[in-house]
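Example record

One chain of 599 residues, shown exactly as stored in the release files.
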Amino acid sequence: MFDRTTWIAIALSVAGLVGWQYYYSKTYAPYIAQQAALQREAKLKSEVAKTSTTVAQPTPQAITPTAALLPAVAGATPTIPEFSSKRETLDTSRAEYLFAANTGGIEVVTLFLHLGANEQSLFLNKDSGLPIGALCDSNGTPIGGFSMQTDKQHEITRFTLSVSNGLSVTKSFTLPQTVGSPEEYQIGLDLSFKNSGPSPISLPGYFVAAGGEAPIHIKDLPTYTCFDWLRDGKMTSIDVNWFESGKIPLVGIETRPARPLYSQQDSGIQWAAVTSQYFCTIVSTTKDQPGSGVWARRFQAVNATEPNGQPIYGITGGLGTGPITIAPGETITRHYSIYAGPKDFYGLSKIGGEQQKVMNFGVFHMVSEFLLWAMNSINKYTHSFAAAIIILTILIKSALWPLQNKATSSMKRMQLLSPKMTELREKYKDDPTKMNEELMKLYKQYGVNPFGGCLPMLVQIPIFFGFYSMLGSAIELRNSHFLWIHDLSQPDTLTHIMGFPINLLPIIMAGTMVWQMAISPKSGDPSQQRIMYFMPIIFLTFCYNYASGLALYWTTQNIFSIAQLYWTKNQPLPTLEKVVPTKPKKGGSGGSNFTSKKR
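Predicted structure tokens for this chain:
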């Protein structure tokens, strides 16, 4: 039975799990009602926009035409055409784009092949207040004054802005011509600066906005709401928590104030992106026209209406260039690509520019990429991602079968050695150092590795975290069904009891872990046994509010391991042999030789 220390540790772990669930429910419970209201509001806006091209544009911040673009041009005043906030829509078979005049960009992207919360249409950039492709300054203030012309036949939207000193700015958005390809989510943006005046014009530079991303679903983890940018093949990433003030946990003492703006100046930037857990918007440049700076801000996606007042945060950002000088009669054109769609690893890889790194698979990215490839390959035959995960798990466990058998044998040998270990503990109970020395000698005499039974678990840790990272970003599992599970990319919550979510599959997972421990050969090392007792609690905490596909993988491998243990249970016990050195043969090299002799 457990000793007092073990019971205290288990009680503290359970208390920590309950405390985390309480915090989680209090922090993110408002998302359900808020996201539902958000979807209804966005849907209404989209419907109104289709019936009228003179709808008043929501502008959460003031727009100052060209002021941010031309502070270095003395006496420059914009020539602003008379127009209301005109809107036009263009669409492909996968998405619809709502373009807005004045700031000259994409206000909302509607994805046809994906659903948001409550089975509503899924919208990107619906609350950031900064259109995708808009020009802005280094603080994220958008530049207004653009007029808009739309050529629906050729799927081109063009924005123009003229200034009295002869400068004119033209922005042309071109929809893709491909059909049935991930490239269909990618829009071309050509940005031209023309100097028709008699004198050179110096511009301080500009930023192209990537728009904003916020959590789509109630259970989308906020740590996946990020701003990412790539330079020289290395991605830098911050999430919305970067802007929070620093505090000492539990005590609440502030270590640093909140940060309103993230800004970096660097050359050779290939792209910048805003991401949620399963969707992203990426603004990329050409190789010969790299970016030279980025900025990002946090924004509140919707006003909190719940009693606790917890807001939903999104993140917005942009990719910039350095100063520009335009000679009289010269036109400078820069080319950009904008991807607004799902975080599809293979689709982004096909587009190029290392945009697939936005998946942010982490340290075990090679494991995650292999698992994603294997899961998709199996799904081509099963047409079920749940079945693909189960089959993939069985294949992995089969490959590890020899290692598991060796570990089981090692644990049985430890079990046979247990009486001798107990004798040593009793003999040297007042001298822990001497006891450990004698135990090590005993292990060496019989050739037993006290941690041999842990080896299969250590090998599976990279696989577990590979699944963890892959399932946290891969779009494939989103809205995939299995038995009672409605979405393998979300927890399988059946109901709530006093605000606490009841997720069945992680509970089954923890139960199978306890079952596996109960039938496993018992090691004679109490410290090792205590470590193993914590494993179900640790894995339950990891998986409880995570994608149910992860719990499905670990439950399947537990059941496979249980079957394997029952299969080996009736096998003959290994022979415990003492390993003794023998004298080297005459004329030999002098090295040590060993033989095994039965005790």
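Notes: The domain at 22-360 is CATH 2.70.98.90 (Beta-galactosidase; Chain A, domain 5).
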